[in-house]
Amino acid sequence: MLQFKNTNFKGKKVVMRVDFNVPLDENFEVTDDTRIVGAIPTITKILHDGGSVVLMSHLGRPKDGPEDRFSLKHITRVLQQYFPNNNLYFASDCISKEAFLMSSNLEPGEILLLENLRFYKEEEKGDVAFAEELSKHGEIYINDAFGTAHREHASTATIARFFDTDHKGFGLLMAAEVENAQKLLNHPDHPVTAIVGGAKVSDKILLLEQLIDNMDNILIGGGMAYTFIKALGGKVGNSLVQEDYLNLALKIIDKAKDCNTSLYLPIDNIVADRFAADANTQEVDCYNIPDGWMGLDIGPQTVNKYSKIIKSSKTILWNGPMGVFEYEKFAWGTFAVAEALAEATDNGAFSLIGGGDSASAINKSGLEDRVSFVSTGGGAMLEFLEGKVLPGIRAIEE
Ligand code: AMP
Question: Which residue in 35, 45, 118, 230 is the catalytic one?
C-alpha cells in the first residue's frame, strides 16, 4: 500500500474517492461543508506536489439515473472557494467520453470533479466493468472517503483491484479516521463512555450491542430512547417507537447488565404536541408522556446526569443527536451534551464525534474545535468500532 505522506505526486494523475455527500438546502446551497473540508488536506498535498486530481463522489440517493437535485455541480462553488488558485472542472457524467477527455487533458495543479457516481446503478452494485472505467481516470487510486468505506461499491472497493499495491492508498482523512478510531478501541483511558442518539433504534441497535463490550457507560438519547422506554413499560405517547425492536431493546439492557456496562436512558424530556418547529411544548417524565404528545429532546435532569458522566470520562464517543436539534426548541439537550464533551476534552479527555448528524450538531454548536476528532463517517465509524473490517479499507490493504 502506498504511504500517502511519503509519496511525491509530481506529474501524477490521481483518481480519488472523496465523500462529498453534503447536505443541501432547497436552493442547493451546501449547509454543512465538513466533508468537503475533510478532504482538503489530501487534495492540497497532491496539487502542491505538482500532481492533478480527479475527484469522484456520490451525493444523496438518486433512484433512477441523473436528477438535478443530486448533481455534484451544486458543490463546485464551495470547492472552488477552498482552491481559489487552481482550475476546477466539472464533468457532467463520470464515465462519458467527455469526462475521459477532461481527465486526460488535466494539467498539474488542476482538479476535475466527476458527476454523482450513483447516477449509475453499477456504483452501488460494485460493478467490475464500471469500476474499471473509473480506474482509467488516473494512474494512482486514493481513497479518502471514510464515510463510505463500509460500502462495497465500485468506487470504494472494486476499483482498487485495477491498481497494484504501490499505486493505491488512503488519503490523510481516511488515515486520521482509522487512527482515531483505534485510539478508542485499543487501550483507551477509562472510564469510556458512548453517547448514542438519533432517530431510529434499528439503525443502531446492532452497533450498540457491540459497544457494550467496550464501554463503561452508554448514554442513550434521541428518538431511539423511546423504544427502550416503551419496552420497559413506559408510556411514550406519540414518540418514535419501533415496535419490532421492543424485545431486542430488552436484550440490550440485559446484555449491558451482564457486561457490567452502565446503560442510561433519559429520565425526563421535552415533549411536543406536533413534530414542528413551533409546536407547543412541555417538560415531562419520559415514562409518563401524555397521550398525543411526543418526546423531541432530553430534559434538564437527563442533561445534568449525562453531563456529569461525560465530564468524569477519559474517553468519549458520540454518535447521534439527543433530540430534533434541527428545530431550535429541541436543540438544547444536544448542545448541552456537546458542551459537556468540550469541557471533558478541555480537561484532558479524548473525544471522538462519530459523524453524521452529531458532526453537524457539534458544528452548529460552534464547539468543533474543542473536541478531539470529528469523524466524517457515522455508519462507517461505528462499524469500524464494532471490529468489522470495512470493504474500503480491505480493498486497499489486500
Ligand atoms: P441519526 O441519523 O440516526 O443520527 O438520526 C438523526 C436524526 O434523529 C435527526 O434528524 C434528529 O432530528 C432525529 N431525532 C433525534 N431525536 C429525535 C426524537 N426524539 N424524535 C424523532 N426524531 C429524532
Answer: 35
pLDDT in tens, 352-361: 998 658 888 9
Regarding the beta carbon of 321 and ligand 1, being less than 6 Å apart is answered: yes
> Any catalytic annotation for residue 274?
no
pLDDT of residue 182: 86
List pLDDT tens digits, range 223-236.
999 999 999 999 99
Q: 6: helix, coil or strand?
A: helix
Domain count along the chain: 2
- Asked if the bond preceding 66 is cis, omega within 30° of 0, the reply is no
Q: What domain range is 145 assigned to?
A: 4-173
Half-sphere exposure of 85 (CA within 13 A, CB side): 5
Active site residue 379: yes
CATH number at residue 344: 3.40.50.1260
Q: Point out the catalytic residue in the list 183, 200, 235, 255.
A: 200
Residue 265 lies in a domain: yes
Confirm or reject: Cβ of 323 under 6 Å from ligand 1. Answer: yes
Whole-prediction pTM = 0.82
**CB crowding 121-136: b at 16 or more within 10 Å, else e:** ebbbebbeebbebbbe
Q: Which atom of ligand 1 is nearest to the CA of 296?
A: 19
Do 36 and 144 have their domain in common? yes
Q: Which of residues 173, 204, 234 is at a domain's end?
A: 173
200 is catalytic: yes
Predicted confidence band of residue 379 (pLDDT cuts 50, 70, 90): confident
Same domain, 70 and 46: yes
Active site (annotated) includes residue 17: no
Residue 394: inside a domain: no
Closest-CA residue, ligand 1 atom 1, reads 198
d(CA 387, CA 398): 17
